[in-house]
Each structure stands twice: as structure tokens, then as C-alpha cells.
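Agenda item 2: iron/sulfur cluster complex prediction
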Amino acid sequence: MSSPLGRYEEMLHGSLPARYLLARSVKVELQEDLPLPERWKLHDRMMEHLREAIGRRDAPRIVRPNLLDLKVSIARDVIRECSLCEHRCGTDRYHSHGRCGVTESRISSQFVHMGEEESLVPSYTVFFSGCNLKCVFCQNYDISTCPDAGRSIPINEMARQLSRLASHIGAEPRFRAAGDIRNVNWVGGDPTPHLPYVLEVLSRSDANIAQVWNSNMYLTEHAMSLLDGCVDIYLTDLKFGNDACALRLSGAPSYMRTVTRNHLMASGQGEVIVRHLMLPGHLHCCTLPVVEWLAENMPGAAVNIMAQYRPAHHAWMFPELRDVVSLGEHRKVLEIARRKGLALI
Ligand code: SF4
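Presented output:
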């Protein structure tokens, strides 16, 4: 079987460009006064050109305005009645906030992370403040529940930081990422409310470095379409195996329909590493259905089934979440997943 991270590995060896650079090579006739529905139509047409370019090995020539500029202009408009995630608050984020509490993008911390999946480290990880989900067991609740925490980093400054991490397009050797850092990992909280910021940073960067979208995947289809062509690896959470647990523990209606759709979209857009954090007392309702769904629907994806759950945040209010996951139960799940053919990492 071919590697689930084949294109990314080729990028690391210096023979392929980051996807977002290809999006910046697709010329678009962009009129700022074009109504939003027309810009979406233009977007969908120009995505066809990008798909043709994905396998190209020559250096993409940056043109302006380009497909990524178009994505930025759409994203800026989408948050006027925000529907970036399936909560679909409809809030004008320039003047107020929705359920996630995010208005401007603030960054809680950014550093070289050594603790992610082996194929991703060292990873330059940007932690946004705020989150669109309200997980009672959130292990990062200090960040996710405080959208005003951290600092606002101007887009140009963040784009410059990216450029310092990697070789520029056109530099020699053309496609080799400089230094040891393998990717930029956008996370939180969750990066979804910050999608316009991320796209705009990328639209001003020429750093040839893989982009990782590290998310709960509770995005709308529109948000997924904006990410298409900009993300090299989706590092996803598949938290629950049914809607009732998602609603009770994360306040996320229509969870299964949303995240399974997005996982399938993600596998068509880039490479995917799926994470599942086992929750105590949720073996039969969540973990085993997740394993089953992955085996049936994403047999080639890399999967990380994790057992490091510790009670945090409001977990104490939910009797089953006061516990931890036993080593024996974790081993049993890994064995089942292997038998079902999942590519465990
Ligand atoms: S990102 Fe989601 S939760 Fe936040 S305002 Fe937009 S639709 Fe609402």
C-alpha cells in the first residue's frame, strides 16, 4: 500500500511545492464588487485549474490576483454573517461575536512543537485563542475558552515569520524547506473561526512549507471549499461515534453528518491524519463506531488512536469522564483497528 502521507513526504524531500503556492499561481480576474454568489462560481471554476496543477513539479509562478486572493475576499465576506462552522451563527464578526467568541484573531502561543505525530515533528505550531466547540473535557480549555487571550499578530508579521521558517519559492534549491521545521500547524482552540486570517497570511507568503489544518472538523462545506488547495495535511479530530454524545459533551448538533462529510472532503483535498482520543466509558458508543467508520470509509488514512485522556475543565460534572482509559482497553482497540486494516501511527 502506498504511504498515506505520500505527497507530504515528497514535499519534505524537496520535489513538490506546498499546495497554497499552486493556488497563488492560478490567475483570477477578480473584481472586488462582484457579488458573493458570483465569486463562489468563479472560485469553483478556478479550482478546476488548481486541480490540474496539483501534480506539477516545476516552480509555480506567483501571479496576482490569484485564486488565493479570491478565497481571501470570499472568507472576509463570509464572516459578515458568519457561517464558517456548523453553528452558523450568522453574526457580523466585524462588529460582534458568535458562539466561539472570536472577533479578531488572537494567538495564544506559537512555538516549535516536538510532541505531535512523528511524521509531523518538528512542527511550527500556532495556537489560536477561542474555539467553536464547548467540549466539557477540553484539555486546552485555558486557550479555547478565552478568545481574547494572547496577542494579535499583524498579518504581514505572521507572513514574515513563515518566510523565515522555509525557503522561498524560487530560492535554490527551489522546493527544499530550510532547517528542520517540517510544517506550519494551525491549531487552537480551533483554527476554524480564524480561517480568514490564515488564508490572508498565506496570500502574503511565499514560504515553501507544508500547511497543517489541525481541527475538530466542525466546519461548513463552504469553509472546507475555501481550505481546498491551501492545506497539505488535515490533522483531524474524530471525537465521537454518535450525535448524542457530541451534543451532550461538546454542544455540537448534527455532529456525525458534519464531521464525516468533512473527513471525506479532506481526503479528496490533501492527506489526512485522523486522531481519536478515547474517552472513558465511551468504548461502545464512540471509539468502536469511529474505528468502524474509518475502516469502511477512509481505509488509507493514517490514524492515531490516543489514550492519554485526563479529566480536565468540566469533566468532573460527568461521572464517566472522571476516570482514565485503561492500557488494556487501548491495546484491545488498537488490535481491532489493525485487524480492520487501519494504518495506525
Ligand atoms: S466560527 Fe462558528 S461559532 Fe464562530 S461565529 Fe462563526 S459560525 Fe459562529
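Discussion summary: The pocket of iron/sulfur cluster is lined by residues 82-85, 87-89, 91, 93, 98-100, 102, 132, 192-193 (CB under 6 Å).
Owner for follow-up: CH.
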